Amino acid sequence: MQTFNTKKVGWAGLGQMGSPMVGHLLHAGFAVEVYNRSPEKAQAVVEKGALLAPNVETVAQNNDVLFLMVSDYPAIESLLTPAVLAALKGKVVVNMSTVSPTQNQLIGAQLKSHHVHFIEAPVSGSSKVAEAGKLLVLGAGDKAIFDQLVPLFNAFSSKVYHYGDVGKAGGVKLAVNALLGIFNEAYAEALVFAEQFGINQADIIDTIANGAMNSPMFQSKIAMYESGEFPPVFMLKHITKDLNLAVDELEKANKRSPLIEKAAKTFSEANQTALSQQDLASIYTYLKK
């Protein structure tokens, strides 16, 4: 069995999720070489001990394992240039970005054609969960390689799953995020519905919070509803992307899911407004109009 050096790894993507995840890796004693399209966003992890590389090719050359934590499939495509693919020969790419099962399978096929191993490992949890090091790692791909990466995953997660072949982890991630979108729209609709009867917002929030429909997710959004301010924990534009990916997968399978389709439509409409970069709970603001 081929083994890889996992004590020193590469990482591309230092947004709201990537930066705290790298911070946890560093705290756990791993050496991390990082790349980010905007170098200034790497400053926080560099101060914690990360090595900043000028480009992805350098990271690929210097490390057996390259983690990707970027916004979407086009961002991944832009990173996997011919030079980067050549530098990765015989190594491992771990995609922790949220893309569709089909897209992960395409990435896997592309990497395989260049003799690069591929692990699919999106995470479930918000930026606050990432900061706490309590993410869920949703994994798929070669189990022997995956198992070598588990100590790295443990640095920023509370639980690690392996579902089987590439594509399955992406399916789980879209299922979970579909629930996230549906529930945020449902809570927002319930608040707006109650308010049309002249019910005080605080009263309906308190009623939900003390009843069977309470949830940790609802609790995490209460301060946003009350203040009318929605600082991004998970941006509305990101849940919109994920819901639309789920709809694409449904269409490929010739399946229907009315709630996912409805949520995708509502969030897509809201995403065309100034709410795009606010937290997904700002769907409440959109529905109030």
Automatic annotation (TrEMBL):
<keyword id="KW-0560">Oxidoreductase</keyword>
<dbReference type="InterPro" id="IPR051265">
    <property type="entry name" value="HIBADH-related_NP60_sf"/>
</dbReference>
<dbReference type="InterPro" id="IPR029154">
    <property type="entry name" value="HIBADH-like_NADP-bd"/>
</dbReference>
<dbReference type="InterPro" id="IPR006115">
    <property type="entry name" value="6PGDH_NADP-bd"/>
</dbReference>
<dbReference type="InterPro" id="IPR008927">
    <property type="entry name" value="6-PGluconate_DH-like_C_sf"/>
</dbReference>
<dbReference type="InterPro" id="IPR013328">
    <property type="entry name" value="6PGD_dom2"/>
</dbReference>
<keyword id="KW-0520">NAD</keyword>
<dbReference type="InterPro" id="IPR036291">
    <property type="entry name" value="NAD(P)-bd_dom_sf"/>
</dbReference>
<protein>
    <submittedName>
        <fullName>NAD(P)-dependent oxidoreductase</fullName>
    </submittedName>
</protein>
<dbReference type="InterPro" id="IPR015815">
    <property type="entry name" value="HIBADH-related"/>
</dbReference>
<feature type="domain" description="6-phosphogluconate dehydrogenase NADP-binding">
    <location>
        <begin position="8"/>
        <end position="164"/>
    </location>
</feature>
<feature type="domain" description="3-hydroxyisobutyrate dehydrogenase-like NAD-binding">
    <location>
        <begin position="167"/>
        <end position="286"/>
    </location>
</feature>
<dbReference type="Pfam" id="PF14833">
    <property type="entry name" value="NAD_binding_11"/>
</dbReference>
<dbReference type="Pfam" id="PF03446">
    <property type="entry name" value="NAD_binding_2"/>
</dbReference>
